[in-house]
Amino acid sequence: MNALEVRDLSFAYGARQALHEVSFSLAPGGFAALLGPNGAGKSTLIALLTRLYDLQSGDIRVGGHSLRDAPRAALTQLGVVFQQSTLDLDLSVEQNLRYHAALHGLSRRQTDLRVAAELARQALTERRREKVRELNGGHRRRVEIARALLHEPRLLLLDEASVGLDPASRLALNQHVRRLCLEQGISVLWTTHLLDEVQPDDALMILHQGRLVASGQVDALIQAQGGDLGSVFARLTRPAPTGAVA
Amino acid sequence: MNAYWQCLRGIVLREWLRFVLQRTRFLSALVRPLLWLLVFAAGFRAALGISVIEPYDTYIPYEVYIIPGLACMILLFNGMQGSLSMVYDREMGSMRVLLTSPLPRTFLLCSKLLATALISLLQVYGFLAIAWVYGVQPPAMGLLIALPALLLVALMLSALGLLLSNAIRQLENFAGVMNFVIFPLFFLSSALYPLWKMRDSSEWLYWLCAINPFTHAVELVRFALYERFAGLALAVCLGLTVLFAVLAVLTFNPQHAALRKKG
């Protein structure tokens, strides 16, 4: 069963079509990158995946559960790190995590166990009583990842999670998430507009003007299109609309 | 069921922690009603004599009269401010986190409204404590009886705030809410003057005040504070709370806010 399946997803802001029949799937335990220039429709897709917006047409299935028909089961399988920090800055690391555990209905005992486990995994145990405001950008992101994994989702969604980080923290975060993917067997959907965050054996989707213009393994795409990832991306996301490849 | 309880507990606890950590927010919420009580009421004391009216047993100074109205004013400001921030940018981040909870959106929104209302009650009782020291001392039992009345009013006003924020495009900032919602609701009510005084001035203004939900909120609290039962006010507040909450939940949709921005 796929960790994520997006089927014929379309969405419009009034007369402006933001997504046109986007379809793709994500295998369990895989790392997939979603690339797209600004305005490609990534934010709209994330808003739909996280239930911020209601589906207009098409469907999204997380771990086999439809977001339309069984939102509770679907959201239980989903962990999210948003582009902009959504932590309470004046609350401690642990208080932020406990709030999230409560939102997922975890019991006190489960919460104690899960918070301790995720803090340890993110090497944040020592800092659990510190206010989030006192942490640097890289550590805040780690808190958000710990939070997103508290309820043990099968799919982790990171929306431009490396924005605002210095190059070293950006690389560390990327490697950290890949390790999680390998060690925990969770699937990761990583949206970005930075090509150096993508590796040759990653699954890749390229979104442009609301359409999925490419989908497949990075190596295979480069082989099929010629050049390197940069030139493939530039070709597929030229201002004039291109036909869907996937 | 346990998941719902844990979730509600977590939402209330978060509001409590934010409240405790942001003491300036608490203090600034008290400044407004205290100015009315200590300055406005002192100035108008001579001009606005209050005759014996229900629920009071005797002549009362003006400060005593306006206490329920000022308590409700705290709830009005907090309700509007809290609800507006649920819809617009400032708290959009935390709303996104809230909405990733697998529990039903209706439950999440109602929990959030309840949490905001409970924190507002702390501010109201902080204000009542200062008023007590100042010399306005309702019966101790009245302060206890007023608790559910104040909670109901807080919920009604928060739900109204959320409904208005969902529905009206012009209410994108707090200045708009002040001018078009808070001031009309507050001044066209029995918060600052008994309605018979208004009737002396203008019949149609009197009727506007009489049908204003905020008048019923103030009267419910006023009667409760003096251990009296206000059946009509309770029925109006209960009915409107349910109506506003249902409509607010039905019309809550963050994509409407996004559409407004993009449009």
Could you walk me through the main structural features you see in this protein, from its secondary elements to its overall organization?
Chain A has helices at 42-49, 71-76, 93-103, 108-121, 137-149, 167-184, 218-225, 229-236, and strands at 4-13, 16-26, 31-35, 57-62, 65-66, 78-81, 155-159, 187-192, 203-208, 211-217. With 246 residues, chain A is an alpha/beta fold. Chain A has a domain at 2-85 and 152-235: P-loop containing nucleotide triphosphate hydrolases (Rossmann fold). Chain A has a 6-stranded mixed β-sheet with strand order 6-7-8-3-9-10, with helices on both faces. A 4-stranded antiparallel β-sheet of chain A has the order 2-1-4-5. In chain A, strand 4 (57-62) and strand 5 (65-66) form a beta hairpin. In chain A, helix 3 crosses helix 4 (108-121), helix 3 packs parallel to helix 5 (137-149) and helix 4 packs across helix 5. The longest helix of chain A has 18 residues, at 167-184. Chain A is globular. The model of chain A is unreliable at 242-246 (pLDDT under 50). By secondary structure, chain B is mostly helical. Chain B has one domain (1-249). Helix content of chain B is 79%, strand content 0%. Chain B is built from 12 helices and no strands. Chain B is globular and about 55 Å long. Chain B starts with a helix and ends with a helix. The model of chain B has no long low-confidence stretch (mean pLDDT 86). Chains A and B meet through helix 2 and helix 3 of A and helix 1, helix 4 and helix 12 of B. Chain B: It holds the Pfam family ABC2_membrane. Chain B: The chain crosses the membrane at residues 34-53, 65-88, 109-134, 140-164, 176-196, 229-252. Chain B: Belongs to the ABC-2 integral membrane protein family.
